């Protein structure tokens, strides 16, 4: 019996290529291997180091998701280049939609999420 494809969060940083764009960190949801959601969380260009785990968890929650398994080891890191010559550093991890239980626990803790 096959299982449905796991939804993942993709965190990436793209350095400027030949286009002159400013690099930056972006977190997106990937419903499948070949699809990225247009909804994203983007950090300001001055954030050059990878966002911390808590910053990633907060960004995921603002998009309505939570990690399936926590901890730094749950994020798989890769690096490479895009076709335009831009350098990319990417991490991904399995995610799930936030549940009513997650939201009530956040509310009880006084954690505001969008």
From TrEMBL:
A family per Pfam: DUF6303
Q: InterPro entries attached here?
A: DUF6303 (IPR046270)
Q: What is this protein's name?
A: Uncharacterized protein
């Amino acid at each position: 019996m096959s299982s449905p494809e796991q939804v993942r969060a993709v965190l990436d940083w793209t350095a400027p290529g030949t286009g002159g764009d400013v690099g930056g960190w972006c977190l997106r949801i990937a419903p499948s291997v070949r699809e990225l959601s247009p909804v994203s969380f983007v950090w300001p260009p001055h954030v050059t180091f990878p966002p911390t785990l808590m910053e990633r968890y907060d960004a995921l929650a603002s998009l309505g998701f939570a990690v399936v398994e926590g901890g730094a080891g749950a994020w798989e890191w890769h690096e490479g280049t895009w076709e335009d010559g831009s350098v990319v550093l990417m991490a991904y991890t399995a995610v799930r939609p936030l549940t009513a239980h997650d939201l009530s626990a956040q509310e009880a803790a006084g954690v505001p999420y969008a």
